[in-house]
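hi! just following up on the protien thing from before. the input was this:
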Amino acid sequence: MAIETFSFRYKLVETVERFLADQWPAQIRHADFFAEMIGSLAGHREEGASLYPVVFVCASVDDITQGLGGKDPIALGHGPITRQLVQQALKQCAPLAERRQWAIFIAIGQEGGQPATYGVFRTENSPLSPTTFGSLRALSREDIFLIGLLQIGENVIEVRSANGEGLHLYLSGARMGSKHPQQVTQAFIRAISRETRADLKQPLRDFYYRVITELTRDIHGSLIAVLPVSGARMDIFSDAVWLEEPYLSIPATIEAYAINPGIEEISSLYSRASLIRGMLSCDGITLFRSDGVLLGYNAFIQPTRAMRQTLGGARRRAFEALAGHVGHGVNLALYRSQDGGLDYISIPEKAEQN
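and the predicted 3d structure came back as:
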């Protein structure tokens, strides 16, 4: 009896080859090298812990500094452009780039046949600035050779070129039925800035983008509700820890930094970001308002009797109960399961925010 063999890696290399054909000259495409990087990023671990570094492959380090504003590049090694180099670079660099204050670069040259140099560079770390990968997403340049790779969800890798083209690759075990991580992130960003003052909208979105991206790689499940400024259904939540001023107003903290961008003001933003991440890791629902204000956390909602009979754990049933109130005192309900599944329900977006 004949046995057919099918290689997912072959399909991955084929897909990467087609993508690179529109990006880089033939002599520096190295599809097998990129495929190895993609597969390695999807499940990279060191000492038993999962790591989520951001990797930028470039022709020259100048592409990083000029295209993305990267700072202080530090070369850590070099070698031929092979699959072995990928493992060597990740082994040595990934632990240094885990907290996203540094990112990995691999400079492969422009001529072909040259050894590659790898290392780390310092990224834009202000809580009110776009992330370095976000800056790459906004680029549309044909004059630099730069590709970024980032795990954006459970076994989901985004590959982005400086010319504006990109790929989302769902690898083995990825949840095709789950909402796309970027879709969920953007829904939250729009919901939480819906009623924010115009001059604070973009810095508020940049602040919360950095916070919410941590959610896609957290080992703890989370529930989020965004409530309207007027007509919020506070009564549906039990046992919530409600915050009081001066800790709940993220917009006020951003405005204070805009007026006086000093050490104390930037420290205040960092500390609030850390506080929110801690709340998101707690049981229950973290509550925000649609002008960017943080309301509370550790809130609970009672599912209906019918929902108690549905499949799924307590967090999923709580999400279904919360989603039932969307449009009636709740603007957005967002769910992340402990094993990485993402879902959300929201009211329609205003035309000017699309």
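Residues 123 and 132 are 6 Å apart (CA to CA).
The radius of gyration is 22 Å.
cheers
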